[in-house]
Amino acid sequence: MGTTALVTGANRGLGKETARQLARRGMTVLLGSRDADRGAEAARGLASEGDVRPLPLDVTDAPSVAAAAARIGDEHGRLDVLVNNAGLMAEALATEMTADDMRRTYEVNVFGAVTVLNAMLPLLRRSAAPRVVNVSSTTASLTLTGGGADFGGDAHLRLAYSSSKAALNMLTVQYAAAFAADPDLAHVKINSATPGYVATDMSAHRGTRTVEEGSRIVVDLATLPADGPTGGFFREQGPVPW
């Protein structure tokens, strides 16, 4: 049986391109999408790239995630690669951001990632070389943000998004430590990836990087060799400071 990968939020943008690149590497790619019709359409559009199959999956709905995990178990027996890509962005000045906006963002970007990862752990355990990639953001770096880095675009409007991705980075660190302490999970590698400022619907196509460029680090971390890193935060050029 070949390698099976799940990419959440993959019916468009970076997720779809990541699915394309993984399929080109010979993986069976499960294209996770909250909207089943859009997911099916996206999978059809990638049919020429390899084995891409739509999978209805709403990361904010626990029964939906459980159903997806059960289906993967029944049809594939295990999961080799999990890319937590599904994301949400709410833009407003910090002084105007509401708690409700924060909650909606965290529900997808943080709690959704936890829900999916926990549901997929039994399937990842069965893989010989499981890889988990949490799609983060350079704007999640406390070091760069505190140092006044120019991220481009409207980073000053991303309190909810950037802070949620900083929380996602902490999940990466904590899960890596937990995996290392569990003999049944010590072979799981988990890392955070930042694709940079990518031109997608989420950025209103204002980004300076293409989805092809942005997906490179995600795919690299999804296909790490046995001696690859775990518990880190990376961009295409290398490690990113926390």
TrEMBL record:
SMART domains, per this entry? PKS_KR
Which residue numbers delimit the Ketoreductase domain?
Answer: 3-188
Member of which family? Belongs to the short-chain dehydrogenases/reductases (SDR) family.
Protein name per the record = SDR family oxidoreductase
Q: Which Pfam families match?
A: adh_short
UniProtKB keywords: NADP, Oxidoreductase
Q: Which domain of life is it from?
A: Bacteria
Question: In the UniProt record, does the keyword Cytoplasm occur?
Answer: no
